[in-house]
Write a structure and sequence with these properties.
The protein is mainly α. Helix content is 47%, strand content 6%. Bound molecules: alpha-D-glucopyranose. The site of alpha-D-glucopyranose (GLC) has 7 residues, from helix 2.
């Protein structure tokens, strides 16, 4: 463990950058040389176990580019070099992208606060919490209003990339793609969407109605946990009324998910105003565990019928992002089957919440095994364990938060 911890710390230091008056970490120097939103939240969680001060800087850098309407962009170009293998995308803005990613700011800030509880620094810790709390509150309110034009208590996405799972088969139907298609075809569709969104100045209500309208499961589950984290921070800061507000909004999303997404024991993403369910079996079916949404019985069924099913998610290496028996399953292709460390982190904490400790441990063991066997790669083939995609990729560091 100590050896692994050292390797993780070395990687975090190697990927650290200072630019534009800020300090942040790039997910992979060769492939992803900018700052990404949910990556930086993962980095902050990893760094909370190594160096809480640096973890704080990572989040403060993110909120410095918050838009006036509360949105936080998913990419910040502090240093606009063009990497060899990263495509240039015209977002309609110079220094940032114009779409977002899952809200994990307060979730990460609370982790840092918990690791940083010594008396001496408690006042600076509170000051930090307050800063993140204010920005995260504005961001949550943006998601709860502008991203919910139909008033359904669910936040919608305007581009698959906002889920963090760019080419996941959950978005095939909304992009008009069949379960089998090329990476290039998928990328073209997502670029086309950016062009359409640009024309209407990324007006979320207009975009969700006209171009792409998906209410995703992990995004809303993460939002539930983020709102609960906001409620906890509000209590720490003595803001009782705010704490009640954030708690209530978390409950509203949980109820809406139950009403609009649940069928046969699974919470499905939905498409369109009438919330038609998208029945693609991906790891997203386990995301509600992370937010404590299923009942104990529903959780048991999810685990028994899906996570432990050798035709679905119980493959040699855990957790495949797509079920083996889904027509879209492709063990080497990005978000269409490979194991990724962030979903593993979400599933791990979901299982812990319901007392499935042995299974959670199995996911941690599999994650560590992959890191030891193949190093810090972007994703891994769930059948062979082969490391794929970007090298020196930071997400493997999340195992530090699972010990
Ligand atoms: C890929 C991933 C996305 C991540 C980005 C930077 O686009 O799909 O989730 O934020 O890389 O690591």
């Amino acid at each position: 463990m100590n050896d692994l911890k050292k390797k993780i710390y070395d990687l975090m230091l190697k990927n650290r950058r200072v630019a534009g008056g800020h300090q942040y970490t790039v997910p992979s120097p060769e492939t992803y040389p900018y700052q990404w939103f949910w990556d930086s939240c993962f980095h902050a969680i990893i760094l909370s176990h190594l160096s809480p001060g640096d973890a704080k800087l990572e989040l403060l850098s993110l909120i410095s580019k918050q838009f006036d309407n509360g949105m936080i962009p998913h990419m910040i170009y502090w240093d606009k070099q063009t990497p060899k293998d990263f495509p240039v995308i015209e977002w309609g803005k110079e220094d940032t992208s114009t779409i977002t990613q899952p809200p994990l700011l307060s979730i990460a800030a609370l982790r840092i606060y918990q690791q940083d509880q010594d008396e001496r620094s408690s006042s600076t810790s509170k000051e930090f919490l307050e800063q993140i709390y204010t920005a995260a509150g504005k961001f949550c309110k943006y998601l709860l209003t502008e991203r919910d034009p139909d008033g359904q208590d669910l936040a919608g996405l305007i581009n698959p990339d906002e889920s963090g799972e760019d080419n996941s088969p959950r978005f095939d139907a909304a992009l008009g793609l069949p379960p089998k298609h090329t990476t290039q075809e998928n990328f073209q569709k997502r670029l086309q969407l950016i062009e359409e969104n640009k024309k209407c100045n990324f007006d979320a209500a207009f975009c969700t109605i006209n171009f792409f309208s998906v209410k995703d499961v992990p995004f809303n589950c993460i939002l539930v946990e983020e709102l609960k984290a906001q409620a906890k921070i509000a209590s720490i800061l003595g803001k009782k009324k705010d704490a009640r507000f954030f708690k209530k909004r978390a409950q509203d999303i949980c109820s809406a998910m139950r009403t609009l997404m649940l069928e046969d024991g699974i919470f499905w993403p939905t498409i369109g105003k009438d919330c038609k369910k998208i029945k693609t079996l991906t790891w997203a079916i386990f995301a509600p565990l992370f937010a404590g949404i299923p009942t104990k019985k529903e959780a048991e069924n999810l685990v028994k019928n899906h996570l432990q099913n050798i035709d679905r998610f119980n493959l040699k290496y855990l957790v495949p992002t797509v079920s083996k028996d889904d027509p879209a399953f492709d063990p080497d292709n990005f978000w269409r089957g490979p194991v990724w460390m962030a979903p593993n982190w979400f599933v791990f904490w979901g299982l812990k919440k319901y007392g499935f400790d042995a299974l959670a441990q199995k996911i941690l063991d599999s994650s560590v095994n992959l890191l030891e066997k193949e190093g810090f790669r972007e994703y891994y083939n769930p059948l062979t364990g082969k490391g794929l995609g970007a090298k020196n990729f930071t997400w493997g560091g999340l195992v530090l938060d699972m010990f």
